[in-house]
Amino acid sequence: MTEHPEGLTHLRADGSAHMVDVTDKAVTKRTARAEAFLETRADVVSRLVSGDLPKGEALGTARIAGIMAAKRTWELIPLCHPLPLSKLAIDFEPGEERVRVIATVTTRGVTGVEMEALTAVSVAALTLYDMVKAVDKQAVVTGMRVLAKSGGKSGDWSVE
């Protein structure tokens, strides 16, 4: 079947979804950065950073959860391709009443890693939420977005 008339790459002409054929795309280095935020109280950020939460050390737990999730993105998002991730870093920037979660994902492949970066920050932020909910039932995960991408046919892009 041919692509949808409006050029939507994941839809066939009959409107059914399909996985895009990337067989002939060039293998290039591809990197993406994404962020999300856990918004909470200042005392909770302090406890999170010091590891003094009822569920234990949150940052390390969230880092591992984000890495594990990114590696399984293709199993969670139906039209994503499985990718061999060559580098995945998750960092935390504690602020006064929030923690910024940043993921940087790299591969050498035929398609980008934006979804892997978004999955990493989503699950890392959700894990932080899970770790603090006993001490702040009003904590919120917000601001998930792609910050930058590089590689591939469409080239580089950044909001930073």
SSE arrangement:
Elements: E1 28-39, H1 42-50, H2 58-71, H3 73-76, E2 85-94, E3 98-109, H4 114-132, E4 140-150, E5 157-158
Antiparallel strand pairs: 1-3, 1-4, 2-3, 4-5
| CATH-derived topology | Alpha-Beta Plaits
Q: Given the helix and strand composition, which structural class is it?
A: alpha+beta
Backbone shape: elongated
CATH class annotation: Alpha Beta
- Range of strand content: 25-35%
Reading the helices and strands in chain order gives EHHHEEHEE
CATH superfamily: Molybdopterin cofactor biosynthesis C (MoaC) domain
What would the average pLDDT be, to the nearest integer? 90
The number of domains is: 1
Low-confidence stretches: 1-5
End-to-end CA span: 39 Å
Rounded to an integer in angstroms, the radius of gyration calculated over CA atoms is 18 Å
Descriptive notes:
By secondary structure, the protein is an alpha+beta fold. The protein has one domain: Alpha-Beta Plaits. Helices cover 29% and strands 29% of the residues. It is built from four helices and five strands. Helix 2 runs antiparallel to helix 4. The longest helix has 19 residues. The radius of gyration is 18 Å and the shape is elongated. The N and C termini lie far apart (39 Å).
